[in-house]
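Pasting as-is:
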Amino acid sequence: MKAAIFSAKSFEKPFLIEANQQYNHDLEFFDCVLNLQTVELAKSFSVISCFVTDHLNKEVLQILATRGTKLITLRSAGFNHVDLLSAKKYGIHVTRVPEYSPYAVAEFAVGLILNLNRKIHRAYQLVKDHNFLLTHLLGFDLHGKTVGVVGTGKIGSVFANIMKGFGCKLLAVDPVKNDQCLKLGVEYVTLEELCQQSDIISLHCPLNQQTNHIINAEAISKMKKNVMLINTGRGALIDSQAIIQGLKSGQVGYLGLDVYEEEESLFFQDLSDVIIQDDVFIRLQTFPNVIITGHQAFFTKEALKNISEVTLKNITKYENEEKLDEL
């Protein structure tokens, strides 16, 4: 089946091509983002594959429908960039990759915790400058600390399991209690209780109307002084302006971000020779206790392999008129 791959990254093309050897679809790669300006490129494709950077709003979906698109297969777990109601209205099926590698993201979140706590990034630079003083590198034991997990799906439960291995006490917020987490001894509490009791808070919930800016000024005010906050979920889970105030006041002592609410104009491109116009992002970068990475938590060989295989399998299911796991 002929399929258009939008926002095709150089790092994922080899995985898609290799996975396609068993499916033999006719794949056409487009490096550009799918939006109102590029949607005409999809006019001859009944199937398109999209990334988190693509714009699948009502206007784009309407044009896709009139051009004959019947299936959108997302190469991501997140789907907050898709107007699902419009997709349904226009008769477009939407699938995703719900479990590409929960280990990749959970392990990266732990990496951010270790890096922030033990200031590994700063120590690396100091040693490169032949400065071997330990003055500014004091950390704390993770053992015995209380870790709050916001969202205990696949990724959150793997993260909880890892932190259990460090000897941490685990609290969680989720409307659905995960049996694996309960077996680990995770205590489900309210968000307010989690904020009040946690030394470290890690976000692993989906982005929706209920979780948009779930970490806001009110939530931050209830957190422990000098709390560590980690976000490898979706950028808009955190109110960036509120987090800046929290950093300035010392309420937030450590911040690790792999996502940012206005990342669309920044991430997945080389802007090293560009003056970035996002003042909030630039302000966040000025804090010595903040680490920001460019949405790379998912980026492992295993994850890319799984994303490619599931994406192509979804196309094959559609081609064979099999039941799809739709959103």
